[in-house]
Design a protein that fits this description.
Layout lengths: L2 H15 L9 H8 L3 H4 L1 H16 L9 H20 L4 H14 L2 H12 L5 H30 L3 H20 L11 H14 L1 H32 L3 H8 L8 H10 L3 H21 L4 H27 L6 H60 L5
């Protein structure tokens, strides 16, 4: 893979996945604009992730059926249209429906990550996928900062107009730079979807990795969905100040290349347990030390680091399971992950309304500990299946 292609793939992943997160720091503005409660505004995050999960389930498998360059550029066109509709939505009900469409069409990043795994040499796969993932993760982590800054200058709708233009630009660039990659699967769409179920049944490592990452992503979602409310209500932050705070999460993107190298050296399974434990501890710290912005910042940085490291190490393991089914493997993995995120965001809205910031943090810590239990079960199963040394 040329360095220029790695860079473009990383940027494309970051810009497309950012569409899922622009709304998180804007919920207060969205609630005021449409005259709904904070709890009702949280539904925007939930429905966007529900839409993304649906796109992962029904569109992402097409990465094994349709030539990837053609599929990517067409889906980016759909994303641009959905973002424009979000920008001009006159009513909250319409905005919610369009938020689902934004989520459904934003799965391009998850087509590009398996493509990077295909193009990378086997001995460098973890490191190169880690570099592409670092772009994706920066998109996740910087989306909140960018949308907050844009909202403070031009209003909350402006970020949707800007992103729509960026999707069109990306479509043109990727059309010129991506190599043509013929599909691995030729038996048809119905057969393709049925084979996704076969992968779930036949690959226990995929099931465990997907479930543990889903709980960890749920913890991440709980923290970042509620943090805007906490910073405004407890610390009197403006949208600009929230944007600056959200920048701290970008440090978590450093985890991707580090985790990729760990995985290439065979340490991914053990390090994954450390990432899950770290996430749980950081959410407990955020609940106990919420009176200090510094404590919240430290917790946010290390939580993001844990989530991103665990994801890269998980993808390194699952992409090695079946080389001719990486898009479908990614379908199982990412659909599970974002379903966990959607459920967590819905629960966060309910718990935050009732118990405030502490309720959101407790939810996140419990989810991370459940993931740690899944990891421990998988580690025992792996050791039990290993041949005994004579």
């Amino acid at each position: 893979m040329r360095r220029s292609l790695v860079f473009v793939l990383a940027v494309a992943c970051g810009l497309t996945v950012a569409n899922l997160y622009y709304s998180q720091p804007l919920l207060d503005l969205i609630a005021d604009s449409f005259h709904v409660s904070q709890g009702a505004a949280t539904v925007v995050v939930t429905l966007t992730q529900v839409g993304y999960a649906a796109g992962l389930l029904f569109l992402l498998p097409l990465g094994d059926l349709v030539e990837n360059r053609k599929l990517t550029t067409r889906m980016l066109g759909g994303t641009a249209v959905a973002l424009l509709l979000a920008a001009v939505s006159p009513a909250y009900s319409i905005f919610l429906v369009v938020s689902v469409l934004v989520g459904v069409t934003s799965v391009v990043a998850q087509i590009l990550v398996p493509l990077a795994a295909h193009l990378a040499p086997a001995e460098q796969r973890g490191a190169l996928v880690g570099k592409v993932m670092s772009g994706l993760l920066l998109g996740i982590l910087l989306a909140r900062t960018v949308s907050s800054l844009v909202a403070e200058v031009w209003g909350w709708r402006a970020i949707y107009f800007i992103s729509a233009v960026l999707m069109v630009v990306l479509a043109v660039v990727l059309r010129r730079m991506l190599p043509v990659r013929p599909a691995d699967h030729t038996a048809g769409y119905g057969s393709l979807l049925r084979s996704v179920g076969t992968l779930v049944r036949e690959e226990p490592a995929l099931r465990r990795r997907a479930l543990s990452q889903a709980t960890l992503f749920g913890a991440f979602t709980a923290f970042w969905t509620a943090i805007g409310y906490e910073l405004i209500d407890e610390h009197g932050f403006s949208q600009g100040a929230i944007a600056v705070f959200a920048l701290i999460g970008a440090g978590g993107a450093l985890a991707a290349p580090v985790a990729g190298k760990f995985a290439d050296r065979g340490h991914g399974k053990v390090a994954s347990g450390g990432a899950l434990l770290l996430a749980a501890l950081m959410l407990i710290l955020a609940a106990v030390g919420h009176g200090s912005v510094i404590v919240l910042a430290v917790a946010g940085i290390l939580l993001d680091f844990a989530v991103q490291a665990h994801q890269v190490m998980s993808q390194h393991e699952i992409y090695a399971l079946r080389e001719n089914a990486r898009a479908r493997i990614n379908t199982v993995f990412m659909t599970t992950v974002f379903s966990g995120g959607a459920l967590a965001s819905a629960l966060t809205g309910v718990l935050h309304d009732r118990y405030g910031w502490t309720g959101a943090c407790v939810l996140g810590a419990v989810l991370a500990l459940i993931g740690l239990g899944v990891w421990a079960t998988g580690l025992r199963a792996t050791r039990a299946a290993a041949p005994a040394h004579v």
